[in-house]
Structure formats: C-alpha cells, structure tokens
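Q: Amino acid permease, please. Structure only.
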Amino acid sequence: MKNKKNDIFFAIFLIFQLVFVQVISKFPSIIEKYYSQGIYKYISNFFRILVGWIPFSIGDLLYIIFIIYIVHTIIKNIKSKKINLIKLISRVSIIYFCFHFFWGFNYLREPLSQTMKINDLEYTTEDLEFFTNQLIEKTNNLHHKITNNDTIKVELPYSKKEIYTMVSNGYQKLSDSYPQFEYKNKSIKHSIISLPLTYMGFSGYLNPFTGEAQVNSLNPVVSFPSTSCHEVGHQIGYAAENEANFVGFLAAVSNNDVYFKYSGYFMALRYTLNDLYRHDKDKYNIALKNINKGILKNMQESKDFWQSYQNPFEVYFKSIFNSFLKVNKQPEGIKSYSKMVGMLINYNKTENNILQFNN
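A: Structure for Amino acid permease:
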C-alpha cells in the first residue's frame, strides 16, 4: 500500500516538474546564478570525488543495468498482460528529477556567448575565410613543430589514459583568464560501451547521473585531447554542444602541451573547413591547398575511421539524439556542434582573447 502511495505521489510530481521546467526556462539568469554557478558546482564536485577515483565507468554500468531492467519489465508485462501505468510514470518522474537536478538544468542557463561578452554570433563568408586561413597557418606551424616534415601525420606519444591526466593543465591555464572554467577532481574515463558508441557515431558523452566524462576509447588518438576537453566542458556545466566545443577548444589550446594545442586547432579547423565548404566551395578548395599534407592525412585517418563503422542504424541513433537536443533548448539539434564556429570567429574579434595565433 505504501509503495502504491509513493508511486502516485511521484506520478503527480512529474506534472509539477514539467510545469516548473517550462516556467524556469524563461529565467536563464536565475538558473545561471543559483544553479550553474551555484548548487551545480557542489553537485558536480561531489560526484567527481565520489566516483572519479574508480577506474571504470559507474555510469555505463548503471545504463547497462537499466537496459536489462527495462527488457525484463517489458517481458514481464507481456507475460502478465498487465501494465502498471502509475508505477511506470513514477519511475519516469524520478529519472526526470535526477537528470535535471544533477546536470540537466544547465541546458537552461544563460548562453556562454552572453556571459563571455561575445556580442554577435553572425559572420560573413569573408569572416569565415579569414578565420579559416588563420587556423590553417596556426595548425600548419604546430604540425611542423611536431613533425619537422609537412607530409608526416601527427602521432601522439601518449597513451589515451595519460591524455586524461593532462586535461587539467589546459583548464587550469584557461581558468586564469576565465575563473568560471575552473576544473578540479578529475573524472574522465573510457566508456565501457565504446564499441556501441562508435557504431552510433559518438565520440563520447557526459553521464548526467554520475557526472563522469565518458570518452569513446576507440577514437583516433589525434582527436583524443580535444574530445576529452569537450566532455569536461559538459562536466563543468556547459550542456549545449556548441558551448562544450568552444570551451573544450579553449582548454586544449591553452594546454602547455603542443600535442593538445594541435588537437584543439585541428578540431576547430575541421569545423571551419566544413562550414566554408557550405558557404563557398571555391574558397574551400583554395584553403585546402594551403594545409600541410600531414594534417590532411590526419583528417583522412579520422574520416576513414568513422566510415568503417557506418551502419544502417546510426541514422536512427543520431535522430534520437537530435530530438533530445531540440527538446533541451538546442533547436539546431546535432547541427549545434558546428555553431561553435560563430563563437570562435566573433570571440577572435574581442579584446584580450586567448587564441594563440601569434606564437
């Protein structure tokens, strides 16, 4: 009887949650001050201290157990031909609460462009071409510094787990200029489900229920530093994909390590090149000719990796994720990843930006 009352309570509570989320989403400044810059910092640090030291992913295990539970429940309901709707809604209510309270409210915070005073996100094709050429010059210089040969692709000398330990350096340097990006109590791990993630087309994800930054362990190594920095961007509260990309890029290029810098600029260059291709194919082809052959080999290596795992189901997984992003205040869906380009171009126009184009 007590369980039934609890189920009814949580089922009704779901209605209040849905209304509350819709109302509070109209007040991003409140979310920013009291949740993202307030209580969430304590929540995220708590989870990183609690499970960060464990060498494997607790979040992945919870997902695996949850999937087994769902399958078992479906089979049980089919056999009994009964569905306890109230109990089902109550479970959804609990998950919905945990998702938002532990991390999800960050989707409703103030835009990062606003808090960093990047006043405009629009840009012309000329802006894009100029910025892409800056990225090419910088990435070429880093590539040559590492390889001393324009035609050799970059190979990182670190293991993937060593890369995790080096992520904090970039965030420490970045937080000297922007304290909101401070990162303590590292919790970055290989995902147990890396192979399924690869088939789904994902480089990693942030587990909202354990606060662990999960990285696909099969990712090409050259992208590992920037991907790890991206997931940490989520971990410190930047839920929007373009913002996690932006923060991850800044952390990677702020790192003392030249391979991290290369990985960061390499990632940004790929986004700007894709964007330039959409804007002006002729200018894209001209830009491509100015890139060191070794960098193009790294790009081809990454392309070949993802193409080798393409399958008919990937489009469905990405469609689900696309809908998830749209529900969570990212109307561009998966395309929001590339919205980082507008942030970078206009951030580069601000005073005292930390892009290292001159060294």
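A: Brief note, in case it's useful. The chain has two domains: 2-108, 112-347.
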